[in-house]
Amino acid sequence: MKKNFDCLVIGAGPAGLSAAITAREFGLSVLLIDEQNRPGGQIYRGIESPFFKNHCGSDEEYAYGETLTKKFRASEADYLPGVLIWQVSQDGTISYLENTVSDQCSGKRIIIASGAMERPVPIPGWTLPGVMGAGAADALYKSSDIIPDGKVVLCGNGPLLLSVASKFIELGVSIEAILETMSYTDYITSIRHLPKAAKNFPYLLKGLEMRRQIMASKTKVYTNVKDILALGNEQLEQIKFTSRGNSKKISVDTLLLHDGVIPNTQLTRQLNCEHEWNEVQRYWFPKHDEWGNTNLQGFLVVGDTTQVRGAKIAMLKGQLAGMAVAHQLNIITGEERKWKAKAIHSELKLEMSVRPLMDHLFKPNPEFYAPENKETLVCRCEEVSVAQILDSVSLGAIDPNQVKSQVRCGMGQCQGRMCGSTISELVAKERAVNVSEVGYLSVRPPLKPISVKILAEQTLINE
Amino acid sequence: MFKKIDRPNSKFITIIFEGEKKSVPAGITVTAAVLLIGVKHTRVSSVSDSPRAPYCQMGVCFECLMEINNVPNQQGCLTYIEEGMEIRRQLDQQKDTYEKEL
Where are the domains of chain B? Predict the structure, then answer.
């Protein structure tokens, strides 16, 4: 296979697909690399499989995704699915694992569309088998056509939780209860963003319809839920919580947790791109301009990696980045780029109108992002608790990396993906400073497990 | 606990889970197949040996690390099953990996 390209795109979700399509339209040589074996990312996961069509074929939004994957297939971009990137170098070289072989490729420009992940929801007992993300259950449904059996409880907040709840109700999953952690103040403080959001009326309507469906199903909904515990011996058996101050206990087989979605910054962190802190949604994102350029020459970011904005905005941003690359590689002039991007900018403006409301309405829950229960395991891999992290801070650690050196949080196989944001939050809270001041864990290659044998057998691209 | 959605004309293939043949729907992920046949945990924690099951399904949590076709530390949620695929849980993860590497 060809190894050097004008443009490498990482991630085959809506942003990556549209960036690759656009770059191809300008005649650039493009390689799209993805860790899944089919295009679609998380939102359109499994879109080419027959399962997906069975359930989502009529949905307008998903039809949009289908068009996108078809366009991509027709674009003649090179496509490398099912490979794991374990290193991205600042010179544009990418090292990846394909089965048990490591190889390299390079691009004059790299567009990173690594998407988002569910915000980790550390509660006591969240490592028990039977507890998983609500988005995870949705991914299992989309990719593999399986749904939870037995008693299910959904807990947390966010549009994805609503969407999973209404979808599972329709599929006949036996939902014991929905535990809403949203506070009333979030409702009230978000009202001021409603007029702007009203510009995108269909979007709001969709949210209301999901709520109506949940209410019509007579599923038990607990509001103002706090102090959630997952209990069990070898697996989840019960959950305990308070709703409006009253204690409750429910027997349950599957607990699906969700508290919104955050950018997956593992690649941009490993590259040492500059990152910024979003104080409302409480996540880090790579600093970028309107075209997606990061502070690193030659590296662009698009889609939910840049800030969580959903599929449609991701596609639009992918187009802008494709144009930016075409301009940077002297295919089009700055004027042409500006002219071509005009319609996209105005579409972006409409789509963005609903985001301030969403960001304020679905604010992350302090009980999840900075857990107070000292027993809670923050780092699942190395089993490091809130208490150990706070002790480390009281012994003088001032940033996540010092905490990591002392107590090993972030040193396990997930390499801090599941605990990184919580560590930053806890350190900031204990030191009574803003999270932006304490920073984030250093992320280093290899980004995926690779054996020494495989590493030793790799041939380098320039040899 | 997970179940398959009933579909007419579903295709099934055989995987080998810890030495036993299991029939599972074609085209699904290793993680989905393992959950579907009723496996409760896919690995044990290297710190306390506590049982763990897949959490994120999107390549982030690494709780679904399994041994697939004799290669340890594979992310089951990103791997799709194939006819005759051999799948094992990582129940004694570190020991197993060390022995293979040496």
Answer: 12-101
Residue of B42, B60, B97 to mutate, interface with A, max A Cβ within 10 Å: B60
Q: Does A262 touch chain B (CB under 8 A)?
A: no
Mean pLDDT of B88-101: 65
The predicted structure's pLDDT at residue A460: 81
Half-sphere exposure of A450 (CA within 13 A, CB side): 24
pTM (2 decimals)? 0.94
Residue B96 has pLDDT above 60, yes or no: no
Q: What residue of B is the nearest CA neighbor of A51?
A: B7
Q: Which one-letter amino acid corresponds to residue A227? A: D
Say which amino acid occupies A122.
Answer: P
Give the tens place of pLDDT for each residue, A2-55: 899 999 999 999 999 999 999 999 999 999 999 999 999 998 888 887 766 655
Bridge-based pairing state of the strands A221-222 and A175-180? parallel
Q: State residue A313's pLDDT score.
A: 95
- Cα A31–A35–A36 angle (5° rounding)? 105
Mean pLDDT of A309-326: 96
Q: What pLDDT is attached to residue B51?
A: 95
Whether chain B has a CB inside 8 Å of the CB on A456: the answer is: no
- Residues A331-347: pLDDT tens digits? 999 999 999 999 999 99
The stretch A442-450 carries a mean pLDDT of 94
Structure token pair of residue A262:
């955050």
State the CB neighbour count (10 A cutoff) for residue A27: 11
User: Which residue type does A341 have?
Assistant: A
Count of C-beta atoms within a 10 Å radius of residue B89? 21
Omega before residue A445 within 30° of 0, cis: no
Task: Evaluate whether the domain defined by B12-101 bears CATH number 3.10.20.740.
Answer: yes
Report the C-alpha gap between A343 and A339 in whole angstroms.
Answer: 8
Which candidate, A203, A133, A138, places its Cα nearest to that of A171? A138
Find the chain B residues whose C-beta atoms sit closer than 8 A to any C-beta of A.
Answer: 1-5, 7, 25, 27-29, 31-33, 35-36, 40-41, 45-48, 50-63, 65, 71, 73, 75, 77-78, 80, 101
Distance from CA of B52 to the nearest CA of A (A): 5
Quick one: angle between helices A134-144 and A159-170, nearest 10?
Answer: 50
- CA-angle at A302, arms to A296 and A304, nearest 5°: 120
What is d(CA B27, CA B33) in angstroms, rounded to the nearest whole number?
10
